[in-house]
Amino acid sequence: MPRIKVQRKSTSVDMTAMCDVTFLLLNFFIMTSTFTPPDPVSIQVPSSTYKIPVPEKDLLILTIGGKGKVFLETLGSDIKIATLEKMGEQYKISFTPEEKKRFSLMSSFGVPIQSLKQYIMMDNKQKKSSGLSQGIPADSTNNQLSDWILQSRKAVAELHTTAMRISIKADQNEEYLSIKKVVDILQKQKINKFSLITNQEGN
């Protein structure tokens, strides 16, 4: 009895639709991703086994590094603009709409407020080479850091009717006195609850 021949069919698959879906997903993830901005100074945070997620809004981050330099970052464009306006009123400095917009897009900064207008209008390359980024003054006679913290807290309270959370991100080799100086400023504003940003052990 003759063997029945099974008709062979082509195994080729049209991958056009799959490629389209892949590129759409790739575009979606790229456009919705939030890239972590570089630290204003090179720091290496200590490790810890305790893990608490960092909130994505109503947060103020104080970065300490480079031998006691303090840099500040607030999350949220509306909070940044409101804080800048309050600081401008306090120090009698007017900021243009363009300067406010550029400031709202900045990450961490550490310059005296007298140099901030100049610093805002620089590009990233100019900021690095300008030498202006020497940390926010925190001396007893010129404690601009305390003012920035206070005005940021007021901005969050007015716009979001909540309390601002504060985190300290310090280099593991930074001197204790540099960190204590910042903690003392917080405690003078009756802020006794704040978090320390660390790397999780094992990562």
Average pLDDT, all residues: 84
Q: What is the count of DSSP helices, taking H or I runs of 4+ residues?
A: 7
- Beta fraction of the residues? 5-15%
Query: Kindly, what is the distance between the CA atoms of the first and last residues, rounded to a whole number of angstroms?
Result: 69 Å
What's the Cα radius of gyration? 25 Å
- How many DSSP-defined strands? 6
- Output the strand order for the largest sheet: 3-2-4-5
For the report, how would you describe the main beta sheet?
Answer: 4 strands, mixed
What is the string of helix and strand elements?
HEEEHHHHHEHEE
Describe this protein's structure.
The structure is a single chain. The protein is of the alpha/beta class and 203 residues long. The protein has one domain (47-200). Helices cover 41% and strands 12% of the residues. The chain contains 7 helices and 6 strands, in the order αβββαααααβαββ. It has helices at residues 16-32, 77-91, 97-105, 116-120, 124-130, 144-160, 176-188; strands at residues 47-48, 59-65, 69-74, 165-170, 195-196, 199-200. It has a 4-stranded mixed beta sheet with strand order 3-2-4-5. Strands 1-6 form a two-stranded parallel ribbon. α2 (77-91) packs across α3 and α2 crosses α6. The N and C termini lie far apart (69 Å). The mean pLDDT is 84.
